[in-house]
Amino acid sequence: MAALVSASTGVMAQSVNESGGIAMIQAEQSPQIQARSIEGVTYSWQASTSIPGYSGTGFMETTPLEGATVTTNWSSTSPEMRYTVNFTRPGTYYVWLRGFAETADDAAVSVGINGVAASLPVLNVKTLNSWSWTNSGPTSSTPVSIEVPSAGNHNIHIWMHDSGFHLDRILLTQNSNYTPELSADFWRNQNIYQIITDRFFNGDSGNDIQLSAGHGQCHIQHRCRHRTQQHRQHHRRWRCQSFQQHQQRCGHAFASSLTDRSMATVAFRFARKHRTRCR
CB-based contacts of 29: which residues, under 8 Å, 6+ apart? Predict the structure, then answer.
């Protein structure tokens, strides 16, 4: 059996790190490659830049570009690329591939982990003559997934299913609703978090508006901007009373203090109620 070598350096490839439940692999990112003979013809994976639109420095394609399809026993009969991924989170990972196919006869690859094919191993691109993402096979809409048994390094395998397939990227994610495909409806299946600032949080007590019950000018008149003579006369009558008594008499709903300037609008809204009920 031929040894696995790196596509770009001829030495053992470096591992890719999973982070936050996601691992993104550039197909040309130093995979370990093993060529195999099918009916006397040697098939393998090689780097290329012949098709524009790839995301990294190139992509990987099976050669020869036509002539073979492997439907069983991929691990022992099909040309292989192997990537080492360092996982911090074990569990189920959903597999996405970004690929390019010219015809439906060269649109698929097979995937697996640690030498074992996935339960649904075949992924094929649905859009021809264009780079596109896929996460399912030709006859099923069920997402393809692999099981990572433990944290640490594990091998991800890409086997040729159809010769002539072009592979740009591999994405592994624990989010079953994740999609790398840009779409106007992408948000429908995502977890979206909205951060709402508490506008009544007392961030700076130094600029609080204090409403205290004291003698002299009516504090309610000043803060609520009441300007009617009737109001002023009313408060001259009650200015020596406590704030609690004033509140009971007038029936308005002011708090004892207004927190920050954000509460000024609340005071303004209560002004009309205070003005009409304080007679």
Answer: 13, 16, 56, 83
Tell me the C-alpha distance between 128 and 149, whole Å: 35
Ramachandran class of 191: left when φ > 0, alpha when ψ lies in -120 to 50, beta otherwise: beta
**Is the pTM above the cut of 0.90?**
no
Among the residues of the chain, which ranges form H helices? 74-77, 219-224, 229-238, 243-250, 264-277
Condensed to tens digits (0 to 9), the pLDDT of residues 137-166 reads 988 889 999 999 999 999 999 999 999 999
Beta-ladder partners of 111: 158
Q: List the CATH number of the domain containing 154.
A: 2.60.120.260
Q: How far apart are CA 227 and CA 132, in angstroms?
A: 69
- Give yes or no: residues 150 and 234 share one domain: no
Q: Are 220 and 274 in contact (CB under 8 A)?
A: yes
The residue with tokens 């013809």 is 41
pLDDT at residue number 185: 58
Q: Which of 28-32, 61-65, 76-80, 190-194 has the lowest mean pLDDT?
A: 190-194
Phi, psi dihedrals of residue 133, rounded to the nearest 5°: -95, 150
The percentage of the chain sitting over the pLDDT mark of 90, rounded to a whole number, equals: 50
Structure tokens belonging to residue 222: 């000043």
Question: How does DSSP classify residue 18?
Answer: P
Q: Is 262 left (phi over 0), alpha (psi -120 to 50) or beta?
A: alpha
In a 13 Å sphere around the CA of 114, the CA atoms on its Cβ side amount to 9
Residues 29 and 166 in one domain: yes
Range of the domain at 239: 205-277
